[in-house]
Write a structure and sequence with these properties.
The structure is a homodimer. The first copy, chain A, is α+β, with helices and mostly antiparallel strands. Helix content of chain A is about 35%, strand content about 20%. Chains A, B: Keywords: Hydrolase, Metal-binding, Protease.
Amino acid sequence: MKETLNYIQENKQLYIDELFELLRIASISADPAYKDEVLKCADEVARFLENAGADNVEVCATKGYPIVYGEKLIDPNLPTVLVYGHYDVQPPDPLELWKKPPFEPYIEKTEIHPEGAIFARGSADDKGQFFMHIKALEAMMKTNTLPCNVKCIFEGEEEVGSKSLEAFVNENKEKLSCDVILISDTHIYSNEQPTVTTGLRGLSYVEVEVEGPNRDLHSGLYGGAVPNPIHVLSRMIANLIDDNGHITIEGFYDNVETVSEEERAEMNKLKDDQEHFKKSIGLNGVEGEKGYTTLERTSIRPTLDCNGIWGGYIGEGAKTVIPSKAFAKISMRLVPYQTPEEITEKFTKYFEKLAPANVKVKVTPHHGGMPYVLPSDTKEFRAAKAAMETAFGKEVLPYRSGGSIPITAMFEQVLEAKSVLMGFGLDSDAIHSPNEHYGLYNFYKGIESIPLFFENYAK
Amino acid sequence: MKETLNYIQENKQLYIDELFELLRIASISADPAYKDEVLKCADEVARFLENAGADNVEVCATKGYPIVYGEKLIDPNLPTVLVYGHYDVQPPDPLELWKKPPFEPYIEKTEIHPEGAIFARGSADDKGQFFMHIKALEAMMKTNTLPCNVKCIFEGEEEVGSKSLEAFVNENKEKLSCDVILISDTHIYSNEQPTVTTGLRGLSYVEVEVEGPNRDLHSGLYGGAVPNPIHVLSRMIANLIDDNGHITIEGFYDNVETVSEEERAEMNKLKDDQEHFKKSIGLNGVEGEKGYTTLERTSIRPTLDCNGIWGGYIGEGAKTVIPSKAFAKISMRLVPYQTPEEITEKFTKYFEKLAPANVKVKVTPHHGGMPYVLPSDTKEFRAAKAAMETAFGKEVLPYRSGGSIPITAMFEQVLEAKSVLMGFGLDSDAIHSPNEHYGLYNFYKGIESIPLFFENYAK
């Protein structure tokens, strides 16, 4: 193992140069205008996999964007690790808030990243993180230390709901058969307190539309006499959460996992630096569901957030219009035992019920995802914990994260294997935001931890 | 007068062709991208004025878009009518709702306009209406029947708050001195019940911004633990109007004119066809301030409307973001004795007070305007009423409209003359909306009414 880590140490600069190549590709899956870039990115990932020494590298066509596959099978009697990642990225808007263009990566030091961080869309989510696996595989191949079989899949639709992945996994069950799935698409609690993610929230995402009059109206001639869809939508959104931070949707909490007082006490041991948290996002105070800590609100409790709203005139200057329609995008994070189907249905029913008499409302579901939990008394968790403890030289704790990776539940069902969420980002990395970045320290600790996980797991 | 009306009759088709030339110019004052079109439109208006026989035609530079001036002074002992109009138009968006491109005028028959209507942005507001004055002047010149002096000003910034007009009027007080101002930028109650507009509401227009976290956040990692500016803004908008349709801003109704029961009874005599009203805008029911009719809500009562709202991700698909900021455009229509300064200040104070602890709010005022009333016992009103009764062959009633033409109050103050609002549109003409149109019947009745007004007023 020492020689693998030495090899990694010697090639550090090269890894950055190569990652920059990937980061320069604007592989935005949500926007059809970037189709060619997404496809180009798939080809580049395949090239890197081949160069790393993987066999049978393929850019597998799907109904959507391709899935890149590669493998190194050394002994059928050894366990097999399936590595998953995604090469697509979130749209970069609002563009004007980026210090430099989102697809022109650069390195800059920050308070949290004194060794420097890579700034670019996708640097942490997920190009910088899945690329660690390609480089770790390469290091194990070059030093002849690969301790088990490895398969890799990198998809191009994670940011739009992994629409083609489930069919692909079902059709390739044999090819993808494995003992464990390893994913780096999450963050650790902090560089001082590394963690393995043992829980993820699920997701229900809907778009809503409120229609009042059948055309835009002049607000001077009609104002005050007709339902204004912006006001109606505002009232409806306001009514979705009460003064205690509770979501008012009927039956919303019916199936929510009750986390024991012991577990809550355990999880609140994580140094919850509220002052730092508030400062990092420029707030004087935080708020949320009554009776829970910030840590709990963002991990073991379900939430509802409006992710976008629009209607009427939103250009420069003034226009006195009452729009015919107003729209919003609303997402709910789910916890164990809630399902996206259940919650989307409950939301739809409730939202339709909230609508006043003189408007029409429409609810369109987007993608959803199941919540996921990896118990901390499993072999999978222990292999990851030990690997990271060696790499970081610190105790590693289990940690439930607020985000969603809906595919973990699907993997478990189809491939009958647990996913290990060994991500290395920080929650301050601004993923999905302007100036996304990924610490160099985290990038290297990740590349080191991966061969250690393989070694621990293959034991 | 008979020969003037005959002349108009003979030139009907030509008027349409000429108006189409003006309607093809996309003179959108709100969007700097259309600057050249606005300037081109000013030149064309000047050309039409000259061809009509006006003297001293000028395209007068201002700090913003130019004001076109022209005059025909025949005798200092005769009264002088100042005609006002505007050649700029509203932005045409949402473009996809137009049946044909907004700057390619065409004629089509509709249920309300069995003789046909001109469809184009600006057809009713205000190119089709100010052009009637140029053609009426031309007819009086050609038939040598001009009964008094006339001055014309046509501005290019009405849709963005007439920013340069007040300075221009102040600097040219002598040049613009007049006995009455005649404006066609309003609508009649219906073709069956023509009206002269005797009241207009004022306007206070603001843009608001709510800032939560100092950057966009991932809703999985932060959702439920920080104030989401979209939710906060929605709650604040919801709180601006109570369940009885009353605006909750402190002191909002302090100065509102109390309209007598007699006047309310008189105004409600106008055939208020609720079924037609609802059908024309596709609603099953209407709503508004409790205790008032639709007619009252849109004329003698002040109102508040959100004209635009935006924040977060508003593109295709799903993005799980909590935006740093959310925005809205909000306008209030004012009635006599309210002033835009007073109401903008009260709004700002109240909105800042409504803001919860952990967000910052910003209120930016756009243009405002004073309400206006023309008593029905004046010479000005009577001249207009008689002119329209001759042209339409029907009784003409006074009518208070809900819209705003802020400059009427300014004219009264600087030029010490009353404005007569003799507009000919219908409220179903979709001004400020897709498929704006102006009835041919209304266009011709307007051109006929104007010389009759001149004659009545000069008597």
